[in-house]
Specification:
Layout lengths: L1 E4 H6 L1 H9 L4 E5 L2 E6 L13 H9 L21 H12 L3
Parallel strand pairs: 1-2
Antiparallel strand pairs: 2-3
């Protein structure tokens, strides 16, 4: 891990980007306080993360991706059986 001030980073940006691309973390400081971190992008298995709008929404917390990746929807459990639903409907319509 390297630590670099903003002024030096500005002057040698290409060098520090190459270090980050090689897997090294570069902490960026302003007046001896860490303000940012330069790292290589994580390899995302999810192709949606290639879309910058999607990735930005995930980073900002607007969207929370599913924990389990699945191509099929989760199983649905019926609340009641069909004949119970129809009986309740008939009961609610009895006063008409």
């Amino acid at each position: 891990m390297r630590v670099v001030g903003i002024k030096l980073l500005k002057n040698k940006l290409s060098e520090y980007v190459k270090l980050a691309a090689g897997g090294e973390r570069v902490l960026i400081t302003d007046r001896d306080r860490v303000v940012a971190e330069l790292v290589a992008p994580r390899v995302e298995a999810d192709p949606r993360m290639q879309d910058p709008r999607w990735a930005d929404a995930v980073r900002s917390g607007i969207i929370t991706p599913a924990l389990v990746k699945s191509d099929t929807p989760p199983p649905r459990h019926p609340v009641m059986k069909f004949h119970e639903l129809m009986a309740g409907l008939d009961e609610s319509r009895a006063d008409r």
